[in-house]
Structures are given as structure tokens and as C-alpha cells.
Specification:
Blueprint (H helix, E strand, L loop, with lengths): L1 H25 L4 H27 L5 H20 L7 H44 L13 H6 L15 H11 L6 E5 L6 H10 L1 H7 L3 E5 L6 H11 L10 H13 L6 E8 L4 H6 L7 E7 L10 E3 L5 H12 L10 H11 L3 H10 L5 H14 L6 H13 L5 H8 L10 E2 H11 L7 H12 L4 E4 L14 E4 L2 H11 L9 E6 L6 H5 L9 E6 L17 E6 L3 E3 L12 E6 L5 E4 L12 E5 L1 E3 L13 E5 L4 H10 L9 E5 L19 E5 L19 E3 L21 E3 L21 E3 L21 E4 L1 H8 L9 E4 L3 H10 L1
Parallel strand pairs: 1-4, 1-5, 2-3, 3-4, 9-10, 10-11, 11-13, 12-14, 13-15, 14-16, 15-17, 17-18, 18-19, 19-20, 20-21, 21-22, 22-23, 23-24
Antiparallel strand pairs: 6-8, 7-8
Helix pairs in contact: 1-2, 1-3, 2-4, 3-4, 9-10, 12-13, 12-14, 13-15, 14-16, 16-20, 17-19
Length: 814
């Protein structure tokens, strides 16, 4: 059938082209327009038929074929009519000349916009289909920070820092040793903060190294709790082999060896960054007698087994140390605006430690001479010399002491010890904590400033989730926070100076089921901490001992085991305001005994991340609860059963978030009975295809975020009843083809984010009634539809952003 259509289409195309050529040669009446039409037809013919061939291969609909035939038939009729124009009829010449111009423009428009747009849509939809077939894991290619794309590059090499000084000699030596045929494992060892990670990144980004190893440079950051199987699983996920279950370490090792050998003659470099002393056996287990396979390890520890293959990384010399400090203290040009004596004394007290130089330099950036002098005096009086790891921590303490003038910011920095090392922290988690602990604004303005202040002082790194992390709808929703491991150690060191029972922050790590000695010896003793963080590994059995901590306001549970039971002593935490439960296991951890939180009347914020919940009923029984977040959770069945059993739940929740909950296919209609909701965020939920129709019950809703719900097909008509709605985010909702006419009734709408909505055909005319609309964020194609409303909506500003999905598509194609 397709062959018949192609033959007929080719005949129509050839016929009109022949007519145009004939008329061009025989007539001088409208020769210019006919010649232009001939050129257009010859240009678009080969590209159109090639596009049609690709559409058939991909089994895509052929709407563009029907439209193209329509234009050709229309053109054929017009050219025939042109041949009948009498030489004396000037009026008809003008009329048909304009018609030929219009036809030529329509063909160009069809080719440039409609056909190429459909071809791009075809490519994108086909690519998404391929990902969907891959075990439903890579379900979306709509944003650069989607879960599937992140897994695909799980072991990619991090970017280089901006200022690098004094590593060239080390780099050349490392390259020489690594490329030596006899070297299989190379260890870079040195004190914390001396630049081991920076040197490893430089090596990976070196052109000579990239020529040898190509794309097979894998970079794995190894935390203290990383097991052999976790490392292997990360490598497999990097190559798209998701959810590999290894019963034993030996099986994992064998599977990795098979993977490497199966790659043929390709070379591979595996970088293990920040290995701990107890992980020496992991290095040995990752050694294979495979040509071209190399392992690079960085560690602050020495491994006796690999003494002969260790490269010791020392501290910077005075010249390089001064250059590095000045780069951070005087970022505009690196030239000091204080005396050389002050700079040199500061450099000497940092004793060549790159991390100390960068952090101290940043803390003194823009400070007056007096600040430099008082800082030096404090260091001199404390006698901090970087002779051992502990003394280095004391030296870095000066960067935290610089926050004395900003006491809340300092407290915020010290709170970062609540989370595991080398893990990204959602900025919103920190915001939720700080709002409750320090009575800050719950809109996030001042808390965002605290994050920025810490970032400017190089105490944390802010990592945007996707390119457009605008401030129009919650800047911190689009950010992760990372922290150098040495700075985390500094936080823990500073927080542990007082006796356990008197500490403001209590950070506990439980390996297997070995509880701290003080916990077992003083089970009945009162703990006065406001923040309690308990981290457990994959071997923990949830056999809890009692703990009396009635003053705890923030409880962070960092877990790795498949099954996890909440401790019963939670019930006695009467002052608890924030509960954060995060699983760092390969699969969502099954959470038990959620009923323990029912009686916590002061609990205001709950965040569950990467856990599986069989029930959520107790959550809605907490009368003062205001915010609940489910991130990467298995919650679909629990959500439906909760509102089926109790459809008229009365709750005071104002902020409800679902992010990357892939098993959530629909929202129960009973959710619309949460009448106090002000913010509803449903993002990256790939299986969600419909919203409940009774949205009009959410009369207090102000923000509706539906980012990257790729199967969601429409917004319900009832959305027009939400008169308080001020922000809508439907960015990267690929399947939404039309907005309801009722959207024009949103009299309070100020912000509309709709970039990446490739399926949206046109805007409803009722858009013109959105008199309060100020900001529209969209891609370039959609912006053309909005331009006609610029003169109608007085304060409208159109922000055009790049399409992250297209960039992601091009990366994979390349």
C-alpha cells in the first residue's frame, strides 16, 4: 500500500513540476514567481521523500503526506489557471502573481515547520519508545536530569574545578606510570584535601588518556559504606544494565569480568575515588588479567599491598600555594589588595593544603585588612599546624569561624553532617529543616540565601537538576547540594566536642548491629540533641535499643537495608518537627511500623525518599502536619487504598509532593478533599496519565507542578475553578496536545512553565483573559504562539529556553 502511495505522490509531484517548467519557458507574464516556485519544488523534493522513507521505517502516521498532496493539487490547479491569463489582463496578472507567492510561502512553511517538526517529533517519540521497551527503566528522555539519563552516566567523570594550580608535574608522572604496560593498579595517596580527586579528574580529562581509553573511563566515588556489590552495580548501570542482582561478591566479580572481556580489544580505566582503609580488599577483587584494563585509586590512606604502585601526592609549594589562595581571595584578577605580608602569612598557615587554601581564600574574599589580621591572630593563638589529618581539620575550622558574624548560616553549615558522605542532598530537604529549626520564612527566600552564602564560601557546591533552574517557581526545587568529604569530617569533629548527652547535633553511624558503646551503657540517660541523624548499613536488622531523646526536632534516618523498621522510641519525641527517611539501597527499602508517628502532634514535615510503603494512613492522622514529600517511592497501591478506605480524610497538609514515583499511575479522587493544599507537585511520574476531575475542591491551591509527566494527556476542565492558582508547571509533558479553554478563567495565574511540550498544537483563545499573567517559560517554537498575546496581556514576558530533551537526544545519537 505504501508503494502505491509513493508512486502516486511522485506522479503528482512530477506533473506539477513539469507544468511549472513549461509555463516558465512559454510565458513572460509572471515568470519570476514561476521560477521561484520551480526552485522551491526542486529543493524540497529529495528531503520530503527521504523524510517519508524514515517515517515508514519507524511506522509513524502519515499526516504530512496528506497535507503535502493537498498543497501539490492546489499548486497544480493554480499553474493551470496561470496559463489561461490573457496578455492584456493586468489585474489577473497581479492576482495570480500574489497567489503564486502565497503558494510558494505555504510550501516553504510546510517544509520548514510542519514537515521538519513532525520529523523531529517522530525521532523523539521513537527514541522514547525504545527507552520504554528497555525494561521500563529509561522511561523518559524529556529532561537532562531524568532518572534514566542519570543512570546512563552514573560513572561519568565529574567536571574539573575552575582553579587548578601546581599539579602538572604530578599529572605527567601519573600518565607515565599508568600507561606503562606492567601497571594495572595505581594508587594516589595523600592527606585529606591535598587534591587527589582533582588530580584524578585531570588525568581522566587529559587528551592523551582519552585517546587510549575513549569512552571507557569510569569514575566511581567510594564512600565508607560502599560495598563491593554496590560498586559493581554502579558500573553495570552505567552501561545500561539496570537492576542486576548479585547473590555474592564472587558472582558480582565474575559478571564484571565477563562484561570487560565482552568489550573486546577496548581499553578501560576504572577510577575509585576516596577509598577507605578497610576497603583494600575491594581493590584486589577488582583486578583482572585483561589487557588494557587499568584501575586508579585515590585515598587518604596507604595500602601496604600496593606500596610499589603508590604515587604520594604532597602539598603545594609556596609559589603555587600563593597563586591558588589569590585566585579565590581576589577572583577578579588574582592581584591582592592587602599587603604581601598578610597574604604570605596566610599562605604559610595553610601549609600548602589546596582545600585549605581555596576555602580560606574564599572566606577572606572581599574582606577588609582588619579581617585578615584577626583571622591570622586566631590561627596563631590556636597553634594549628597541618602535621596530621586532625590538625588539618582544625586549620579548616577557620573557614567556619569566619561565619561567626552570620550565626544562622554557621548553624546551617553544621547541620550538613546529618547526611551521608558523597551523597547529593536535595536543597529542599535543607530548606525544610532550617525553616523549622531557625524560624525562617517558609517561602524559602532567606533559607535560599543561606545556601548561596555557603556556596560562595566554597563550603558546599550547588548542582542544578536541569538547565533552567529559574527563581520563578522555587529556585531550590531545582538544586542539589554536595559537600567535600573533608568538610563533612570537619562538621562532625566540631559537633562532637561536647559529651554525647549535651550535644546539639548527634550523628550516629551503626555498622551491622554494633551500637555505640555510650548508647548501650546509658540507655536511660536523657539526650538533649535538637538534631538526631542515624545512619545504618545494609546488614542492619532494625533491632533497636531504647533511646530517650525528647528534645529532638529533626530526625534523619539514612538507611541501606532492604527492610527497615522505624524505632519505637520515635513515639516519645514530642518535639519532633521534621522526619527525613532516605534509603541509599539499590532498591526501595520496605518501611515498617509507620504507625509509630501517628501520635507526633508537633510533626510538620515528612520526607520519604526511595522507600516502599504499604500504607500511608498514619500520615494523614497527624493534625499539625503541613508538608509531605514522596521521592522515588513505591507508593501507588498505598495511595489508592488510603483514599479508598477513607475518601473524606480531613488533613491540614498544605504542601504535597510526588517525584519520580514510577508506580503511581493515577491519583485517587479523594486527594481532592485535601482542601488546605496550597502546593501540589507531581514531577517525573512517568506512568501518570490522568488527573482527577474534582480539582475544583482544591480552592486554596496556589502552585501546581506537573513537570515531566510524559504520559499525562490533558489538564481537567475543572482547573478553571482554581481562582487562587498562581503558578502552573507543565514543562516536558510530552503528551499534552491542548490546554482546556477553561484555563482562561484562572484570574490569578502569574507564571506558566511549558517548555518541552512538543505535543501542544495551539493555545486556546481564552489565554487572552489571563490579565495577571507575567511570565511564560517555553521553547522557541511555542513562543511564536504566545507573541500574539503580548499586546493583549499587559505585563507578559516570554522566556525562551533551550530544549534539554533535544540535547539529550543528540548526545545519544552521537
Amino acid at each position: 500500500m505504501a508503494v502505491v502511495i509513493d508512486t502516486a505522490l511522485k506522479l503528482v509531484f512530477d506533473e506539477i513540476l513539469k507544468l511549472v517548467v513549461t509555463q516558465t519557458m512559454q510565458s513572460d507574464k509572471i515568470k519570476t514567481q514561476l521560477k521561484r516556485l520551480e526552485t522551491t519544488l526542486k529543493r524540497i523534493e529529495p528531503i520530503f521523500f527521504e523524510g517519508r522513507r524514515l517515517s515508514k521505517v519507524l511506522d509513524r502516521p502519515e499526516e504530512e503526506t496528506t497535507m503535502f498532496i493537498f498543497h501539490l493539487e492546489k499548486g497544480k490547479e493554480l499553474v493551470v489557471n496561470c496559463s489561461r491569463i490573457k496578455f492584456w489582463n493586468v489585474f489577473q496578472k497581479i492576482v495570480y502573481s500574489n497567489k503564486l507567492i502565497r503558494l510558494n510561502n505555504e510550501l516553504l512553511w510546510f517544509f520548514q515547520i510542519e514537515l521538519q517538526g513532525n520529523m523531529m517529533s517522530t525521532s523523539m517519540r521513537s527514541l522514547i519508545g525504545i527507552y520504554d521497551l528497555s525494561a521500563k527503566l529509561d522511561k523518559v528522555l524529556s529532561a537532562v536530569t531524568t532518572h534514566a539519563l542519570a543512570n546512563r552516566h552514573l560513572c561519568r567523570v565529574p567536571r574539573l574545578p575552575e582553579h587548578i594550580v601546581g599539579f602538572n608535574v604530578h599529572l605527567q608522572e601519573l600518565k607515565r606510570r599508568l600507561l606503562n604496560y606492567d601497571t594495572q593498579v595505581l594508587v594516589v595517596s595523600g592527606p585529606g584535601g591535598c587534591g587527589k580527586t582533582t588530580l584524578a579528574k585531570m588525568l581522566c580529562h587529559d587528551n592523551e588518556i582519552k585517546e587510549v581509553f575513549g569512552e571507557n573511563i569510569l569514575y566511581v566515588t567510594v564512600s565508607r559504606q560502599s560495598s563491593f556489590k554496590i560498586i559493581i552495580n554502579n558500573i553495570f548501570e552505567h552501561y545500561g544494565k539496570n537492576h542486576c542482582e548479585f547473590q555474592t561478591d564472587e558472582e558480582a566479580r565474575n559478571q564484571l569480568e565477563n562484561l570487560i572481556n565482552g568489550m573486546g580489544p577496548k581499553n578501560m580505566l576504572l577510577v575509585l575515588d576516596d577509598m577507605w582503609a578497610e576497603s583494600e580488599s575491594i581493590i584486589h577483587d577488582l583486578m583482572f588479567q585483561t589487557p588494557g584494563y587499568k584501575v586508579l585509586v585515590t585515598s587518604r590512606f596507604l595500602f601496604p599491598r600496593f606500596n610499589s604502585s603508590t604515587h604520594a601526592l604532597g602539598l603545594l609549594n609556596d609559589e603555587d600555594a600563593r597563586t591558588l589562595l589569590c585566585n579565590f581571595a581576589f577572583p577578579s584578577d588574582g592581584i591582592p589588595n592587602v599587603t604581601d605580608d598578610l597574604v604570605n602569612k596566610t599562605v604559610r598557615l595553610c601549609m600548602g593544603l589546596p582545600l585549605a587554601l581555596s576555602v580560606v581564600g574564599a572566606s577572606l574574599c572581599g574582606q577588609p585588612v582588619l579581617k585578615w589580621k584577626t583571622t591570622l591572630k586566631k590561627w596563631s593563638e590556636s597553634g594549628s599546624i597541618l602535621e596530621s589529618n586532625s590538625s588539618m581539620l582544625l586549620s579548616l575550622k577557620s573557614s567556619v569561624d569566619a561565619l561567626d558574624e552570620l550565626p544562622i548560616v554557621k548553624e546551617c553549615f553544621l547541620d550538613l553532617g546529618s547526611f551521608p558522605e558523597d551523597k547529593r542532598i536535595s536543597a529542599m530537604v535543607l530548606i525544610d529543616m532550617w525553616v523549622e529549626l531557625y524560624n525562617l520564612d517558609n517561602e524559602g527566600m532567606y533559607t535560599s540565601e543561606n545556601l548561596l552564602e555557603l556556596s560562595l564560601r566554597n563550603l558546599i557546591n550547588l548542582v542544578p537538576i536541569r538547565k533552567y533552574a529559574g527563581e520563578l517557581d522555587g529556585y531550590c526545587n531545582e538544586l542539589y547540594v554536595t559537600q567535600h568529604g573533608l568538610l563533612r569530617e570537619l562538621v562532625i569533629h566540631m559537633s562532637s566536642q561536647e559529651p554525647v548527652v549535651e550535644r546539639k547535633r548527634l550523628f550516629i553511624e551503626i555498622h551491622r548491629n554494633e551500637f555505640p558503646t555510650w548508647w548501650l551503657a546509658h540507655k536511660e540517660q536523657l539526650i538533649n540533641a535538637r538534631i538526631l541523624s542515624i545512619s545504618t548499613d545494609e546488614a542492619f536488622y532494625s533491632n533497636w535499643y531504647d533511646l530517650h531523646a525528647p528534645k529532638v526536632e529533626v530526625l534523619a534516618l539514612n538507611i541501606r537495608s532492604k527492610d527497615y523498621t522505624l524505632p519505637e522510641f520515635i513515639k516519645r519525641m514530642g518535639q519532633l518537627k521534621v522526619l527525613i527517611v532516605t534509603s541509599y539501597s539499590d532498591y526501595p527499602s520496605q518501611l515498617h511500623n509507620l504507625s509509630f508517628i501517628e501520635c507526633l502532634s508537633n510533626l510538620r514535615t515528612i520526607r520519604f525518599e526511595h522507600v516502599a510503603l504499604s500504607t500511608i494512613q498514619p500520615i494523614f492522622a497527624i493534625k499539625n502536619l503541613r508538608k509531605v514529600s514522596f521521592v522515588m517511592c513505591e507508593i501507588g497501591d498505598a495511595l489508592m487504598s488510603c483514599f479508598t478506605e477513607s475518601p473524606y480524610i480531613k488533613s491540614n497538609i498544605t504542601d504535597l509532593e510526588f517525584d519520580m514515583c514510577y508506580d503511581m499511575k493515577e491519583l485517587p479522587s479523594g486527594l481532592c478533599n485535601l482542601v488546605h493544599l496550597r502546593k501540589l507537585s507531581i514531577t517525573n511520574c512517568q506512568e501518570l496519565d490522568v488527573l482527577p476531575k474534582g480539582l475544583e475542591s482544591l480552592s486554596n491551591l496556589e502552585i501546581l507542578r506537573l513537570h515531566c509527566c510524559t504520559k499525562l494527556q490533558e489538564l481537567p476542565e475543572s482547573i478553571g475553578s482554581l481562582c487562587n492558582l498562581s503558578v502552573i508547571d507543565i514543562s516536558d509533558c510530552l503528551s499534552i496536545s491542548v490546554l482546556p479553554e477553561e484555563i482562561g478563567e484562572l484570574c490569578g495565574l502569574r507564571v506558566l512553565k511549558m517548555d518541552g511540550c512538543s505535543g501542544l498544537q495551539e493555545l486556546p483563545r481564552s489565554i487572552s483573559k489571563l490579565s495577571q499573567l507575567e511570565d511564560v517559560i517555553c521553547d522557541e517554537e511555542t513562543s511564536y504562539s504566545w507573541m500574539e498575546f503580548e499586546g493583549v496581556i499587559r505585563n507578559l514576558k516570554i522566556h525562551v529556553v533551550e530544549d534539554d530533551r533535544f540535547e539529550s537526544f543528540m548526545k545519544i545519537v552521537k
